[in-house]
Amino acid sequence: VSPEADLTSVQDIAERVAGGTLSATDVLEQSLGEIAARDGEIHAFVTLDSDGARAQAAEVDRMVASGENPGLLAGVPVALKDNMCVRGVRTTCSSRILDNWHPPYNATVVERLRSAGAVIVGKTNLDEFAMGSSTEHSSFGPTRNPHCIDRVPGGSSGGSTAAVAAGMVPVGLGSDTGGSIRQPAAFCGVVGMKPTYGMVSRYGLIAFASSLDQIGPITTSVADAALVFEVIAGHDARDSTSLDRPAPRLLPMCDRDIEGVRVGLVEELVQGADPEVAAQVTAAAEALAGMGAVIENVSVPEVGLGLPAYYLIAPAEASSNLARYDGVRYGLRVDGQDVEAMNSATRAAGFGAEVKRRVMLGTFALSSGYYDAYYGQAQRVRTIIVQAFESVYRRVDVLLGATTPTPAFELGAKTGDPLAMYLSDLFTVPSNLAGHPAVSVPFGQSADGLPIGVQVLAPALGEPVMFQVAAAIERAAGSEKTK
Amino acid sequence: VTTTSDKRAFEPVIGLEVHCELRTATKLFCACRNEFGDEPNTNICPVCLGLPGSLPVLNARAVEYAMRIGTALHCEIRPNRFDRKNYFYPDMPKDYQISQFAEPINVSGFLELPDGSRVGIVRAHIEEDTGKTTHMGAGGRIHDADYSLVDYNRAGVPLVEIVSEPDITSAEQAHLYAAELRAILVASGASDGRMEEGSMRIDANVSVRRQGTTELGTRCEIKNLNSLRSLVRAIEHEIARQAEVISSGGRVVQQTRHWDEESGVTVPLRSKEEAFDYRYFSEPDLVPVEPDQKWLSEVEGALGPMPADRRAALVKALRGEPSQAQNDQVVTLVGQDLDSLVLAAVAAGIDPGLALRRTANEAAAEAERARALDPTTYATLLRMEQEGELTSTQSKAVLSVMLSSGGDPVAIAAAKGFEALADDSLADLVRQIVEANPAEWERYCAGEAKLQQFFTGQVMRATKGQANGKSVEAELERLRG
After folding, report:
1. Which residues in chain B are closer than 8 Å to A368, comparing Cβ atoms?
2. Percentages helix, strand, coil for chain B, rounded to the nearest 5?
3. Chain B: residue nearest A335 by CA?
4. Of A325, B36, B341, B384, whose CB is crowded by the most CB atoms within 10 A?
């Protein structure tokens, strides 16, 4: 009988599987068992690929047995947000419009995960086309927060995040367009990282807003996120926006002390938050100061411009990216008298309300006569935000703030009020607009026992120092817990 | 419907938009084959089908070909980037076209026509082609089709769209422009220019204004011009239509119109009010292109001579001011790719007038076969004619054989029996005829010049007209001493 795997640790599983003391097949069965036991309630997965996963696990076991190198993520079960393509596996974006679509190709991240020995267990729930902050806007119904079943897990990568937080898999991949990895990570008490734009290939990621989308890891520890990042990052010739440089090593940064690292505590990323969230950010800053970091209070008022700019740029790009779902080639088709009628009927039936809202918003923002006042203006604001960050990063190495204004809210609390829902991205969108990396690390709890996330932001390519600080926050959080 | 006088009262203003498919091996944003005529939907992949999650990667060769076109059209080649042109159409896989709107690669050039006139080039930018829709059943048109089939082999094929200034003032000039542009595209190696395969497609913007006025009239854009003949007919029809509208007190409505080849008229497709709002914005999946000086120089250096350069070279080879007829022959020969035959012959010492005449009058009549002629062999034929070994009639006969079945002119002339008359045997024959007619010979020697015609006639009769008259005269004078 094989010893039980720790389904919350990427490193533990990868080391033991590669070392031959744990079989990938057993790890997978254990993961599938957890999913069977808990996912009826949580609803993190929309599609399980048990057969594909078993074949993949068997291959890893064969490699280990024959002395081949199984890779950095040997036998590690992975949950994949259902907007990333896996050949032959149904991919839905949680939308009716992709009705039973099976991609004929793999996303680059899928190929990198598999060649590192990872085992893709299945596809997870999201807000339709990643548009949302609660994973309630899904044609498959909502995902629930494992910490509190009445609460949302955040979104849009709610499925992957909940799967990790519930201990079904040690890692999930999400995509982050305006906070869709970090916000659910904060809500579910796990680590969620958005890399520098261009670090991780978008090839095979179904686009929401192309200039903002980035894939990133969701794990229970900072070191696990570092390890998974190293596997999925790096140049890809199939993505023209991919940076032509190798992925930096982040794992060694996780043990490094933070003596002298300059941390800017961003007024605007704290003040707008609930007092109990703000208190945890302040506590994290104090803990960092106690570890030798230099804390400086900084003000970056321009981050407040992020949300309105984001809600023009992202819908504008989305309105174009989602045009292809027209019923002609794949997915849902609702017949009509002529092509135009078929297009309209298909899109009317296939898209949910939130997607329609954003497609209309984006179409309007790009329209002749309105372009300059809306999309053009938003792009100018984007430049202003980039410049504001550049200016503050001359003084500090990283920035610190809350990930979200509040802890996880209750299901249904904001579905009737889109604007209130959008405000939960207030602290996360600036990093997407700037193309900068950011990571959410769990730190403390609310009075109700809900997890709270602290966000570390860094300049472009600043992942190493960002992970150095994030790991320190994680250590501080651990020692808080044991007090 | 329009009287001639009405027509003369109006001056047309014409601009052409030419879409030209680049002859790259692969498509603009993926590695699928760029090939006309393959089985439908065989040259497709996730990228050119616009499948969810796929991303475009720019084909550097397409950029290079666009730069060649820009260079040949004297454009400024600029740092450039791509935009999305958004509109729904079933043969467009992403329901947007990746094109260059705000920052095109080539701007501000010109094209010089063979008659010396210039047409400005506004821009020549890169974009992707769409798929091809075939409407099935009933009349084969979209409104009465039972269903439609889409072939995506063409989707993502690289195009350069060349937009002219509205400098063109007649259907004939539009024809000249299109023909010259086509020749330039082919000469640059960027396109095969095959209109019948759709690799060169033309839209014409036509407006008219009263003679002597300068304000531009309302224009109509005419689509579906699949041949130079259609281009001319459609423009002529459209000029007449607009003149008629204005003459009868109406107003031209800004429209996109479709040329109906069969009925010979343009019909409205959509008006300005129904025009698409393309919602252009910068393509976020691609990065800007900034051709550096090294690349620009390489492209410029590799570009062969353009038709205008070749015409100039041919005129220069003629040594002296060419006649109008010769100018026309120069244009024809360059257009038919036969100028190299003339130049090679002149270089081999053939009289330029003879080389031009024989090539333009005889060889050009079978241009395709003429292009297969070996220039050295061709020059040999012309030398035989120049040196009197062959008469012009014989030379043409030998050339005809060379064109139809190839071969060496000396051997062909010999087989035809031309050779014998060209040297010693002609002298023998003349002597025999002189000996057979002593009285006439005496009178000839005494200075009776008209008897030269008598002897020449005898020789011609004996040779069935194949002797060279001048050679006969020369031989007679030699015998007379």
Report:
1. 277, 279
2. 45, 20, 40
3. B147
4. A325
